Structure formats: C-alpha cells, structure tokens
Amino acid sequence: MGEKKYWDEKIETLPRLELEALQLESLKEIVAFSYENSPYYKRSFDEAGVKPSDIRTLGDLAKFPFVTKQTERDTQGVGSFLGEMCAVSESEVVYVSASSGSTGVPTLSPFTKQDFDEWQDVESRLFYQVGMRNTDRYVHALNFTLFVGGPDVIGAQNLGALCIWAGTVPSERLLFILKEFQPTVIWTTPSYAWYLGESAKKIGIDPARDLAINKILVAGESGGSIEVTREAIEKLWDAKLYDFFGISDIFGACAAMCDAKDGLHIAEDHILVESVDLHTGEILEDRKQGELVLTTLRKHARPMIRFRTGDIGYVERKKCECGRTHARISIVGRKDDMFIVSGVNIFPSDVEFVVRGLKGISGEYLIRVFDKNFTASYSLEIEKEEGSSESDEALAERVSTALKARIGVKPSKVIISKDGELPRATHKAKRLIDERKLNYNI
C-alpha cells in the first residue's frame, strides 16, 4: 500500500457543495453558541437587529456585524479575566496565546481542550500538505513565549516527525543544531531564513551542501509569497520554500501553500473566509482584492464572528491542481501603516510608546522602512535633548535595547539628530516613510 496523498483526504477533497453544507451547519451552531454564551455577541447582535435564526445560508452572515482588533482590546478584561467576547468559563480554557497591541496591553487568544486539539490537527494537515512525513527531522525555530505559533510544533509531533524545539535561539546555536542533528525541515521567517543561510556561509557552512534542510516553512512576513524572495532563499538552501499564514486572534497556521504554490489553502472546515470592500464592507467576488474577514466555525473559547483581519488580499475557490477543494487566499499587504520585521508586527504607536517614555530625547521620531536582503528592515531617527552629555553611541544603544524589549526586534540603525531637526506638524505628523520597492504594504 502506497503513501497516502492527503492527511485527511475526505475533508480536504470534499466537493464544494458538501463543504459549504458542512460550513453552514457549523456556522449556525457557532453563531447560536456565541449569542447564548458571550455577553459581547449577545449585545452586538441585539444592537444590529440580528439573531442566530437569521442564518439560513452562508450569505446571511453578511447581515452580522464585524469585529476588529479594537473590539478585542475594548472587551478584554471586562466582566472577567478573559473578557466579554469569551463564550466559556475560565475553567474550560487550557491555553492562551497573546499578542502585544499598540496600547501596550496584550490581547489574549484562549482555547478549550477541544479547540487546542483540533487546531493541532489542522497543523498536522498543513505540515503533511507541504510534504512533511514521519521520517523527517523538524526544527521549530519560532518563539515559544506566548506566541501562537509556538505550539504548532505539536502538530508536527502528531504527524510523527522527530521534532526539535529550538525556539528563537541565537543563530550560532541554531546553526550548530542544523549541522549536528541534520534536520530536514525548518520553520522560521523569510528574513531569518535568508539571514541564517548567509550567516552559515560566513563561517564556512554551505547550507545547500553541508546541511540536510530540504523544506523551509515561513510565516509572519510577505516574503514567502513574493516569488523573487522565495526563489532566492530556495537557491541559497537548495530547498523548497512554503508560505504559511496564521493569526493570533484565531490560531496558529490556518493556511499554507501546497506544491502548486498558487495561494495558501485555508482550513475551510474551521474558518469561513470573506473578502470585503475596504470602505463599504460589501462582500467581493472571488479574486477581487479586499480586506480578508475570517469567521471561526469550531473555536468555542472565543468565537470570532466576521473578524476584519486588516490583511489585504483575495480568495480563490476554484479547485486546485493538487486536488484540494478548500479555498486559497493570497495576501498582498496591510491596509494600515503596520509593517513587519523578522516576523514581528510593528506599529508606529509601539515605537512612540518607547520613544516618549525615555529620558534624554525629545520624543519626536521618524521611521524609515526599506528593503534589505529580500525583506523589510527599519531605521529610527530621534532627537537628543539639548545639553545632554550622553554620547550618540550610548543613546542609540539604549533606544535600540528599549525597542527590542518592547517590540521584540531592534531597528537596523538609530540615527541621532539635534533637538528641533525633525519636522513638526500641527495636525497629523507623518512619522513613517516607506522606501520599499517590493509591495509589502498597501
């Protein structure tokens, strides 16, 4: 008997009509569950004049209100630790991930045991989809500290791969692991995959010849879906690169490339995806570019009904050449001024939180985002207060360290100017200059 082609052939190749019937059944259940158990959703639906029984077709979801990241922030901690959006008691929650927000308060993503187990089955499905097998050695080089992508390694273990929980160790330590343990698959960010390969070459290790990596999984940045970046990394490592998509508000990876590399298959038995007009919220046809809106169909700890992701892209529901029937999403950028460096989402307000809290600088700043080694990097220009005796070098290091602690990634350079040299604005200051040539953001 030969190797199976799919992790779960029945669900992955389910004809569209049957898949949409399954989605409708799940949608009816989760909308009713949310209304009955979440204080936020009951209030929100009542205010919008909708009720669970209004869901008769998938299209009826358009009658229901959106939720956003701000909704999470506004409702978190209200009424309970987990907040008004949560639909189960804390005693039923076995895991929470967290993402830092521009307010400085991390937004929690809770999971029941069933939520968590089903999430990891999706991870196994996606790992299998890109070719991981129980004969692989897999090194998980993602952050384990509150990051929703950390537990995804369990999906690889469930698949049967030998798993190395590396985390975000220093590059020299990770290269030691790659050299000594000879893993065949690694997951990191596009920028780090490039950096790690170049670092290896500098110390006499040829990633293509001396290491066993044959598959590189990437997420957190646009690079994996940018052909020129993907091909450059593949050439450096002599390995296949596959882009993954996850979102802390829902769960880890929920979409990934297949060998066709024509968009990312999203797990439609767990997530309903819409693309909507940025301004009107109107649902768009397939392949029409808009903001991606996701609805969880099975997650009960904190259901997300029509969550506006802020990601700009389009949906393709035509059957893929790989045989899978689940929709593919293609993400082309962000609708706001957020930018991503080394897999970390950065808002100008996060930088401002640091800059305005440090002594010895004016609080004015200017961010420049630019291409560097096929990915995004950023520099920060600040003003040293007049009369300060601190050296420019010491000040730059202090600011850089504070940004690393707050955001998770340092700027490539901190430029020190004199007090008053940066432009002022009486209305809305332009603090972000995007000098990138590749289309990371919109």
Give an overview in words.
This protein has 442 residues and is of the alpha/beta class. The protein folds into two domains: 1-335, ANL, N-terminal domain (Rossmann fold); 341-434, ANL, C-terminal domain (GMP Synthetase, Chain A, domain 3), CATH 3.30.300. The chain is 29% helix and 25% strand. The chain is built from twelve helices and 19 strands. The chain has helices at 9-12, 16-37, 39-48, 69-75, 113-129, 153-159, 171-181, 190-202, 207-210, 227-237, 348-355, 392-407; strands spanning 93-99, 107-112, 137-140, 162-164, 185-188, 215-218, 240-247, 251-256, 264-266, 271-276, 290-296, 307-316, 328-334, 339-341, 344-346, 361-372, 375-384, 413-418, 432-434. Strands 4-3-5-6-7-8-9-13-12-11-10 form an eleven-stranded mixed β-sheet. The protein has a four-stranded mixed β-sheet with strand order 18-17-16-19, covered by helices on one side. A two-stranded antiparallel sheet has the order 1-2. A hairpin with a 3-residue loop joins strand 7 (240-247) and strand 8 (251-256). The longest helix has 22 residues, at 16-37. The protein starts with 8 loop residues before the first helix and ends in an 8-residue tail after the last strand.
Count of helical stretches? 12
> Strand fraction band?
25-35%
Structural class: alpha/beta
Through-space gap between termini: 49 Å
Q: For the record, what is the CATH homologous superfamily label of the largest domain?
A: ANL, N-terminal domain
What does the overall shape look like? globular
Q: How many β-strand stretches?
A: 19
Strand order of the largest sheet: 4-3-5-6-7-8-9-13-12-11-10
* CATH fold assignment of the largest domain: Rossmann fold
Known CATH architecture of the largest domain: 3-Layer(aba) Sandwich
Number of domains: 2
> Please, what is the average pLDDT?
91
Query: How can the largest sheet be summarized?
Result: 11 strands, mixed
- The radius of gyration is 23 Å
CATH class of the largest domain: Alpha Beta
Parts with pLDDT < 50 across at least 5 consecutive residues: none
Query: Helix content range of the residues, please?
Result: 25-40%
